Amino acid sequence: MNTWKLGILGFLLVCACGRGQQAESGDQTGRAEGEKSSKRVVIQNKGSDTLVNVAQAWAEHYAKVDTSLAVAVTGGGSGTGISAMINGTVDLANASRKMKDKELAAAKKNGIEPVEHIVGYDALAVYLHKDNPLSEGTIAQLAAIYGEGGATEKWSQIGVTVPGCSSDEIVRVSRQNNSGTYAYFKKAVLGKGNEYKLGSRDMHGSKDVVDLVEKTPCAIGYSGLAYATDHIKTLCVKKDDAAPCVNPSITTASDNSYPIARPLFMYTSGQPKGHVKTYLDWILSDEGQCIIQKKGYAPVRAVKCD
Amino acid sequence: MLTKLPFRRSTTGDQHRAHDALDWAWLTDKAVGVLVFVGGISAIIFILSVFTFITRQGIGFITDTMEVGEFLTSPAWRPTSDENPTYGAFALIVGTASVTGLAVLLAVPFSLGAAIFIAEFAKGRVRETLKILIEFLAAIPSVVWGFIGLSIMNPLIIELFDVPVGLNLLNAGIILGLMSAPIMTSIAEDALKAVPDSYREAAEAMGATRWQITWKVVLPAGRKGLLAAILLGVGRGFGETMAVLMASGHSINIPDSPFDSVRALTASIAAELGETAVGSDHYQALFTLGILLFIVTFVINLTADLVVNGIKKR
Asked: How far is B44 from chain A (nearest CA, A)?
């Protein structure tokens, strides 16, 4: 009998742990709403991890521009933002990929017409450990490393010897399968209809990818350029063997010369109205676009910032 | 004393009798009875409602989309593919099983040793200090353990074993072992303490040494509780999410050495559920993983009960 009790207790503990985590995050948003709604209008803004830092910066700056409006920003990934849009729980969904047809259909079923707005561009940098001698690579080489059926498993196959990586194995660092970065890299590098090789280390955030690659000599990873640091190397990418190699930067992302740069989206439910429209217009103004540029992403058009 | 009770009325003898039961003591007794009953069956209610909830969320996938063979034997977990989503959970099941197995392997000797030392050998202040420290160890949040795995164990494993990446089965196993050891230790210690002192006294009277008492008398007498301790540790390992997510490498892979990265069932649910549209195939597939976890935990507990009762009868 004693074991039964212990067993049930143990099971409940397990349940309680799982539930505790969920409740926590829900609590925070709930509190933010509760605190602010009495004083001012709150816009719920949720989604892409790539955009979360920018969205936060926009929200903070906008609080000074218009005190009657507050923006509550949550990350979690493009999938999170889009599913929140489908479920009608956010005003603005951030996404680093386009909504899929399936998702659009699901939204329409719930009576929501998502409207897409491009708010900036992001160059997807391919990261290497700083000791890695590789400096340039083609999309095809990346596809052979990451894609299902690709033959590249060892660094020596690309013709480099990586110091500190005695096993010679390429440690592929990727993202969890709901991330917009994951979906975009798959489309842009592996090509439509191709899958990732199984066995990559799937990190749960853009920054985690950079952190792991920084500490692992054998690793290669992809993540937004804004997460680059001085302790890590970015690969110069060639579209094909004939093309010149292009380094990821704000300029090369804006002028479309960098082959793996993608637009960043904000989705609204229907054409934006009222406060959401004012906020979105401000994001697309020179002031808003200078903020995104400062954060390491490319603005939608050339802007002059101080 | 009786005259002070508020429900007592000074009426005729018969009525007096009828109202006799309606005093505060009677009410308190009934109220507490109901409360204790509700508390007692609440565990059953909770378990049933949790099971009903996850089954309802996952059943659509099981009946419509899932192919049992693929789900249990294919490692291809690609639920977000546009063209051809596949739901193979084999690598996740192997991942969870291997991490838990390694964790138990590492934790059992340490926690049983600690329990024996605390219950049988340590005295006074040493014993109290150790008990408090072990409780502290149990209070460390799992995300902190995960962080230790990510930032301390990862470079350490790379350095020590010269492997390409330190987020692997070994890392997750050690972290999970450290997490389940305090629980195993305190339950095992309770089990040893529950062995009556008269056993020890009898053995001592026969001229047994301290170790002989522990090994030949106390451990066999407390084995039921020790087994419960180990199985609870296994349950802890199965259910742990955050630390495993951070330390295991989160890689779909069938491991053939402790230095391979793996992915656990719980970690997959944690990483993917938040970003999935409610009701989609992927969402339901994740709940199916939840059902699988639930069933496995249930089987572990049931086995524990059967084994323990079996020992008892003999």
From this structure: 9
H or E segment to which residue B41 belongs = helix B24-60
Give the DSSP letter string of B43-60: HHHHHHHHHHHHHHHHHH
Mean per-residue pLDDT, B59-68: 84
Ordered by where they begin, the domains of chain B are 96-278 (1.10.3720.10)
Q: What is the pLDDT of residue A33?
A: 43
Q: Which residues of A touch B150 (CB under 8 A)?
A: 211
**Interchain proximity A193–B245, CB inside 8 Å:** no
**Which of A8, A80, A198 is facing B43, going by the closest CB pair?**
A8
In percent, the amount of chain B with pLDDT more than 70 equals: 91
Q: Which residue has the tokens 């009556």?
A: B196
Residues of chain A in contact with residue B163, where contact means CB-CB under 8 angstroms, are: 167
CB proximity A4 to B under 8 Å: yes
Among B142, B225, B253, whose Cβ lies nearest the Cβ of A199?
A: B253
Burial class (CB in 10 A: 0-12, 13-18, 19+), B8: middle
CA distances, A198 to each of A77, A171, B151, B256 (Å): 21, 12, 25, 15
Q: Which residues in A lie closer than 8 A to residue B261 (C-beta atoms)?
A: 199, 201
Determine which of A5, A9, A14, A146 to mutate to test the interface with B (most B C-beta atoms within 10 Å).
A14
CB-based contact A203 B263, cutoff 8 Å: no
Burial of B225 (0-12, 13-18, 19+ CB in 10 A): buried
Enumerate the residues of chain B whose CB falls inside 8 A of the CB of residue A82.
Answer: 277
Nearest to B164 among A7, A12, A216 (CB): A216
pLDDT exceeds cutoff 70 at B256 = yes
As given in the structure block, the two tokens for residue A126 are: 């391919």
B262 in Cβ contact with B95 (< 8 Å):
yes
Prediction ipTM score = 0.73
What per-residue string of b and e applies to B61-89 under the rule 16 or more CB within 10 Å gives b?
bbeeebeeeebeeebbbbbbbeeebebbb
Higher pLDDT: B206 or A18? It is: B206
Q: Which of A77, A45, A111, A84 is nearest to A280 (CA)?
A: A45
Helix then strand then coil, in percent of chain B rounded to 5, is: 75, 0, 20
pLDDT in tens, B178-231: 999 998 999 899 889 989 999 999 999 999 999 999 999 999 998 888 988 898
Instruction: Specify the pLDDT at position B172.
Output: 94
Over residues A83-93, the mean pLDDT reads 91
